[in-house]
Known about the structure:
Distance between the termini: 62 Å
Radius of gyration: 16 Å
Number of helices: 3
Amino acid sequence: MAHKIAVVLSKWQADDPSRRELEEAVEAELAARADVELTIVPELYDLAADGPAVRHLQSIDGDMIVLGWLYPRATDWRLSRTEIKGRAGPNAAVTEEPPDTPADS
Length: 105
């Protein structure tokens, strides 16, 4: 059996149809992949430190990819607070430098 990568999808906490639609599309694509072990959890910010979702995440052995709505640093901080250690990987949605701003005229 091929190795599966753990992917965690953290859902947005409010009822926002556009975000929910995106989450559902991502969930459907990932669930259809044989090389992905998908876990869906509520917003990381809302997880209880001793709750079942955190205990499950703590039990994942090896690498995991976390998809969510928090900024990468906030995601890392939130997971670290529950003894889930990791490091941020490349992220096309967040740039290292702020975008150029128009000069004042």
